[in-house]
Design a protein that fits this description.
The complex is a heterodimer of chains A (112) and B (112). Chain A is mainly beta and 112 residues long. Helices cover 0% and strands 53% of the residues of chain A. Chain A has no helices and 11 strands. Chain B has no helices and 11 strands. Chain B has 112 residues and is mainly β. In chain B, the strands form 2 sheets. In chain B, strands 2, 4, 5, 6, 9, 10 and 11 form a 7-stranded mixed beta sheet that branches. The chains are: A mainly beta (112), B mainly beta (112). Chains A and B meet through β5 and β10 of A and β4, β5, β9 and β10 of B.
Chain lengths: 112, 112
Amino acid sequence: QQQVKQSPQSLIVQKGGISIINCAYENTAFDYFPWYQQFPGKGPALLIAIRPDVSEKKEGRFTISFNKSAKQFSLHIMDSQPGDSATYFCAASKGSARQLTFGSGTQLTVLP
Amino acid sequence: DAGVIQSPRHEVTEMGQEVTLRCKPISGHDYLFWYRQTMMRGLELLIYFNNNVPIDDSGMPEDRFSAKMPNASFSTLKIQPSEPRDSAVYFCASSSGTGPAFFGQGTRLTVV
């Protein structure tokens, strides 16, 4: 049962462009939506997170847009850089514990 | 703090052998999670602890898998007997209250 669906599976963007990754969830009890970045051979690292009481959160070049009615959220990477090339995972959790249900991941490649 | 520390980083074992993966969470964190990452299934939660007590082990695939947390600074994930399909990267993560989860570097397990 895939509770968090992520797309696209892979994404190629030119340096300076905007990278957009989308996720949709099914469980309306989810109340915390983080994005993780993973480089090869490393563990996932928290990038940015949002709660459903706000529609947008921005941290530097990274923005989460959240649409509660559509049960969708997305990550926008502005001015994408080659160093952003990594795999990005959306996730969701509910309640006080941070047990995460992950999307399937998006492999982002930013061309120089 | 050094972050979540996992050992070993790589483990190669023969089918049928016992494998023990180790994790030291971030000091002060009261939640500890074990995840498994494979190409086929992505990142999936196996089990999590709160204050050293197992809360949800519904993600543990079989009785061959067991996890313990004897104290706040140490946890183990044991597979006995191991099978080739257990080959994956196993991550440990920890969090404090409703704070974000921080992941270790992972243990890459290969069962031949």
